[in-house]
């Protein structure tokens, strides 16, 4: 099934960096490490509208955006434990939702600021 309103080439104006957390043992039984950049992609940012959850998040100082990237073998490896960074602004987002199934041409991410990835 294709998107009813897919992003245009002009909308792919945001350069994003996608990072995943590397699991490293700290010797104390903890395995959470630092994020390491995996790759960079061009993306289209779209506002998430005014649903009740989005409005509540804004009241708590979080911003939720919808992000579209072209589908590729790399893009299909992204999951909800990753972190996304807007390369231009330096703003970091926790990836909350990844949909690589609905449209074979696009991978949709829902990302949010102000929360731990």
How would you portray this structure in words?
With 117 residues, the protein is mainly beta. It has a 6-stranded antiparallel barrel with strand order 1-2-3-6-5-4. The longest helix is centred in the middle third of the chain and has 8 residues, at 52-59. A hairpin with a 6-residue loop joins β5 (92-99) and β6. It has one helix spanning 52-59; strands spanning 14-21, 35-47, 64-70, 83-86, 92-99, 106-112. The radius of gyration is 15 Å and the shape is globular. It has one domain: Thrombin, subunit H, CATH 2.40.10.270.
Descriptive labels:
117 residues; 1 helix; 7% helix; single chain; globular; Thrombin, subunit H; mainly beta
Write the layout of secondary structure elements.
Elements: E1 14-21, E2 35-47, H1 52-59, E3 64-70, E4 83-86, E5 92-99, E6 106-112
As a whole number of angstroms, the C-alpha radius of gyration is 15 Å
The count of DSSP E runs of length 2 or more, i.e. the number of strands, is: 6
- The low-confidence parts are none
What strand order characterises the main sheet?
1-2-3-6-5-4
